[in-house]
Design brief:
Rna Polymerase Sigma Factor, Chain: A, Arc Repressor Mutant, subunit A, single chain, 194 residues, 0% strand, mainly alpha, 10 helices, 80% helix
Amino acid sequence: MSISASKIEELIGRLKNNDKSALDEIFNYYYPRLYNFSKRILKIEDEIDDILQDVFLKIWLHRGKINNPETFNSFIFTITKNALLNLIRSNANNQAFKEEFSKRTIASEYVTQNLFEFEEIKTEIDKIVAKLSEKRQKVFLLSRNEGLSNKEIAQKLNISEKTVEDHITHSIRFLKKSLSEIGILSLLYFYLFL
């Protein structure tokens, strides 16, 4: 079962109007997907429920800041991914956690390598975004980092929505081209999290 963009837009609207049943619907749809996503990264199922509770709590607490239905999917997966990485980092010196984690993963070096690669890729993406023109960079970051809609960006920067769309289209094209030169893992990151 997939969820349409119009349904996400409706749920976000209800969420922003303090409708807790909208959060229940978001939970019912996303929980199994986030659980499987978390399990692939963390492997230790005991911790996943706590992390996902925090993710949905954050969504409820920050519901007023959710503006763009088009980026909601990547938004919720990014919050989850960051929570998982924070847990792994915070437990890096916890021997019991490391032993359990090592038992359930192919190799702990693989996870460390993945974390290193993630940070490296994020740094590369930030460098590529910094190469965009000042206006294009501003539009792109307002869209991707702040989740503003094209209309909101247009109003904020006093430009047309068509100009916003143009900036975003050209930014994504430039990023894809630059990322393809880095390699497939970077492109995978791009499609999953940007």
